[in-house]
Specification:
three-stranded antiparallel beta sheet, alpha+beta, rod-shaped
Length: about 210
């Protein structure tokens, strides 16, 4: 085929050559741009002055962080001390409340026992009196035994006095008598009325006779 036939006819007798295919341009970046350091990364100091300023800045930042850590540690110690103080105050309050509750309970028990001690005294005299009716005496003794068990349940204990040295903290002396053979001076030789305690508190002092 001739060159003339390859040409295409166009208006006004002009011919238009076929468009030539152009190769895509390779994308490339300048070497200077690729070697450019990241903006977020600080440039390393080069001169001695820059190094000195850089180390000085880092030293100040380190001191600031250390100061914050010291302040946080101090605050933590204060909170810990406050927590320990609060725990100690609560423990004291709990113990004080328990003591007050025990005291109120003991006050109530002491008052109730005081009202029935005269009944126990009468039963005790009946149990120690001479009686020909053994069944009657046995019933009185059994009643006293049950009363003693009830008192122990309420933490009421009898003050041991007979044969013991006289102690004014627990006993009231109403009489002094010459000591009999084998009795020591100042010892209790007879108990007129039994004494009782609740815990370490006196409910009633023991009424006793003491050897001179």
């Amino acid at each position: 085929m001739s060159e003339e036939t390859k040409k295409q006819a166009v208006p006004d007798g002009k011919t238009e050559p076929a468009p030539e295919t152009q190769a895509p341009k390779a994308e490339s970046e300048p070497a200077e741009k690729q070697a450019e350091p990241a903006k977020d990364q600080p440039a390393e100091p080069k001169t001695d002055k820059e190094k000195k300023e850089w180390f000085g800045k880092k030293s100040k930042e380190l001191d600031a962080v250390k100061a914050k850590l010291d302040a946080a540690e101090k605050k933590n110690d204060q909170l810990k001390e406050q927590l320990l103080r609060t725990a100690a105050e609560y423990d004291n309050f709990r113990k004080r409340s328990a003591r007050e509750a025990d005291q109120k309970f003991n006050d109530g028990v002491s008052y109730a026992v005081t009202q029935i001690l005269s009944i126990l005294d009468t039963l005790d005299m009946a149990a120690n009196a001479e009686c020909s009716d053994e069944n009657y005496k046995k019933g009185v003794v059994m009643t006293l035994d049950k009363a003693e068990k009830a008192l122990k349940t309420l933490n009421i204990t009898e003050i041991e006095a007979l044969g013991k040295p006289f102690d004014p903290n627990y006993m009231n002396a109403v009489q002094q008598v010459p000591p009999a053979e084998g009795q020591e001076s100042g010892s209790v030789v007879r108990v007129f009325q039994k004494g009782y305690m609740i815990g370490d508190r006196i409910v009633r002092h023991a009424t006793v006779v003491v050897a001179e």
